[in-house]
Amino acid sequence: MLSVSLDLPEFEVVKQEELTSSYVVVVQKNSVKERCSFCGFLSSFVHDRRTRKVRDLDILNKQVYLLIKVKRYRCLNCSEVFSECYDSIEPGKHQTNRLREHLYQLCQDTTIKHVSEKYHIPYTTLERIYYSVAQEKALIHKEAITQATDKDDLVLSLDEVAVRKGHQYETVLLDAKLGCILGMIHQRSYESTSQLLTNYISSSQAVKTVVVDMWDPFHKAIKSLFPLASIVIDKYHVVQKVTQALDKVRKKYPKLKKARFLLLKGYEKLSEQQKVRLDELLEEYPLLASAYYLKETFREMYKLDNYNDAEESFEEWIQLAWSSPYPSFHEVAKTLENWKAEILQYFLSRYTNGRTEGTNHKVKNIKRRAYGYRNLERFRLRVFLECTGNTYKKQVA
User: How far apart are CA 142 and CA 147, in angstroms?
Assistant: First the structure.
């Protein structure tokens, strides 16, 4: 028979038995005295004994159950009866702490249902274990983030992610320096955004920079709560507007449906063969070549280091866009003119929503993995734990 080593110093093994699909190990606590949970008096008077069944980590693909001989003591000081406590098992739980931690880690990056079937644990039981441990982990993360946050120079990143069909959004607030999620809230209205910022940012004076897209309710909420903060419009959203304008021009040429990738991707990222093919297309379609030139010229602006040079380049591009024959570029020029100050602020702050967009991708994967969440609080808890922990630890290491 295989001898099971528990590696739980507080217990001594009394007996063990190997069954077809499990091991049963009878254990008892080493100590002969226990401190009263009511008055703190140390007692050795045993009132009675009971048996408690607790599941531990599997061994060789077999379930392990501990049958604990629980001693209940009577306090000679206050006459109350109390049970002995264990470091490795929480009161009222039917699993050891290390098993609960192991199950929690297994549920990360996968579904509770998958782990439930693999470990033969009822779904509701595993769900309760996961979210119980998750709440504890979230408190630890939040405390660590609070200590690591630069309270005098906060840089926030604000963006939305679609969580359901029908324009159902969650607004995500990140610390751009640490790359960690501070909070989420349903929808992306002025009211919800203001509530999100108020709930998670205690000092409006500490916020120096906020990185956002061109969604107007975000800007109204930021200006209302943080009037002294600099607003930076994320450069990827700006470039996206210009790229979409080029794509509208391409759609006027049905034969170029398969050329979309060549036209929208940055020229420097193309292979030599792709560059040759692109040059042939632009030579064949001169009007399209002009639109492509506008897109690449705008991308070049973001490579400038000096604010004044960027402003001059921005103004020149606006004039080129207005003078072009493409309505889509006229629309973009009008939009960029309205957001000129916030767009050019990038050349002073150099912050983007890159981390936020990466986090949004993870959020969507979490949503798809579970085929959506009915309970938004649990969804946010999952997102916080899976998208935050490793990020801020790397930043403060």
Answer: 9
**Domain segments of the chain: what residues?**
1-94, 96-148, 153-233+353-388, 235-349
Please give the pLDDT value at position 397. 42
CB 292 within 8 A of CB 257: no
Please give the C-alpha separations between residue 339 and each of 49, 235, 257, 333, in angstroms, as whole numbers.
Answer: 74, 12, 32, 10
How many CA atoms are closer than 13 Å to the CA of 88, on its beta-carbon side?
Answer: 18
Cβ neighbours around 225 below 10 Å, total: 16
Does the pLDDT at position 60 exceed 90?
no
Model's pTM, two decimal places? 0.83
* pLDDT tens-place string over residues 76-88: 999 999 999 999 9
Listed residue (126, 134, 102, 111) closest to 389, CA to CA: 134
* Cα dist from 196 to 92, 200, 208, 382, whole Å: 36, 6, 17, 18
Query: Two tokens at 386?
Result: 């899976």
Residue 151 CA, chain-centre distance (Å), reads 21
| CA neighbor of 282 nearest in space, from 263, 264, 260, 269 | 263
Tokens of 47: 């009132």
Question: CB count, 10 Å around CB of 203?
Answer: 10
Q: Encoding tokens for residue 100?
A: 């609960």
31-37 contacts: CB < 8 A, separation 24 or more?
A: 31/84, 34/71, 34/73, 34/82, 34/84, 34/85, 36/73, 36/75, 36/77, 36/78, 36/80, 36/82, 37/82, 37/85
pLDDT in tens, 368-396: 887 778 888 999 999 999 887 655 555 44
Architecture of domain 153-233+353-388: 2-Layer Sandwich (3.30)
pLDDT surpassing 50 at residue 203: yes
